[in-house]
TrEMBL record, chains A, B:
Keywords: DNA-binding, Transcription, Transcription regulation. Signal peptide: none annotated. It holds the Pfam family Fe_dep_repr_C. The keyword Metal-binding does not apply. Coiled coil: none annotated. One of its GO terms (molecular function) is DNA-binding transcription factor activity. Residues 9-67 form the HTH dtxR-type domain. This is Mn-dependent transcriptional regulator, DtxR family. Belongs to the DtxR/MntR family. It comes from the Archaea. The lineage of its organism: Archaea, Methanobacteriati, Methanobacteriota, Stenosarchaea group, Methanomicrobia.
DNA sequence: CAAATTGTTTGGTGCCATACCAAAGATTAG
DNA sequence: CTAATCTTTGGTATGGCACCAAACAATTTG
């Protein structure tokens, strides 16, 4: 199993994986398109990419589902979002502000930085954007 | 004078402006290319863009210089980098780690977030990456 | 100061990420 | 089993960034 650096996927692809994790199981193209506000054809193409890279299994016309690897990444991505949002909220940003601010840059923050931040905050279990799990945290 | 949101320029363009501020005065294409490790032709094209957008004045074959607006942005960009690096250093990242981590995502952090973070840290004047000035800070 | 060297710009291309549209194909509902 | 509803394919587009080769300007030097 390769090490997660956190920088493997582009911002949009991170969004796809996070959504797939949230929905769980077999997810339809239309669901994704609605959530991410993109054309279904864009979703298909992105899913095809993610599939070729091993993050999801795609059964054409049926749906998509995370692979074990994809799930691992998705969990990290959600955690990263939550940790960063919690961090920013400590500097006076509201939950909503922190969340939307983080959404713009989270894809560019490494796992090693997240591990440090998480450890430094005492491995919090609740954030402003959702529960924080530490399965993907390397510095427990 | 328009409000700086902090999201106006792409990551690379932010680097150009920060370097121009550091060098001051008329800067040559080759200097920029060496600093940013890109082909001189890439530098020329980017500088042309920045010039058309009003951030720099470009005298072909002579050099580039920040406009008043460009300088204002560049100062904010440097400040943003310093504030974010200082923030991350508070979570156990070394100066170098904080600096390189921030370099990857700084272009996507808004001025309003920076103002909050800066205020919340008590408007520090010294960071891990350099001095911090507050001329561009809206929440003094 | 003219020729040679050096630095800069232009024009062409290419890649990645992202997006849309129209048309074709598959699935599902009636 | 046809009609409506996804979904996918193929084409095209944009922004950001990069390189190369060739043309052009400036500077150095003999």
């Amino acid at each position: 199993m390769q090490e997660i650096t956190g920088l493997e996927l582009s911002p949009k692809k991170v969004e796809y994986l996070k959504f797939l994790l949230k929905k769980g199981d077999l997810v339809k193209t239309t669901d994704i398109s609605n959530e991410l506000h993109v054309d279904p054809s864009t979703t298909t193409k992105t899913i095809t990419d993610l599939s070729e890279s091993g993050y999801v299994d795609h059964v054409p016309y049926r749906g998509v589902r995370l692979t074990a690897t994809g799930r691992e990444y998705a969990e990290f991505f959600v955690n990263r979002h939550n940790i960063l949002s919690l961090m920013l909220s400590h500097y006076g940003l509201s939950s909503e502000e922190a969340c939307s601010e983080v959404s713009r840059f989270e894809a560019f923050v490494s796992k090693s930085a997240i591990d440090r931040i998480c450890g430094s905050m005492g491995h919090p279990t609740v954030g402003v954007c959702g529960k924080i799990k530490h399965s993907s945290c390397s510095s427990l």
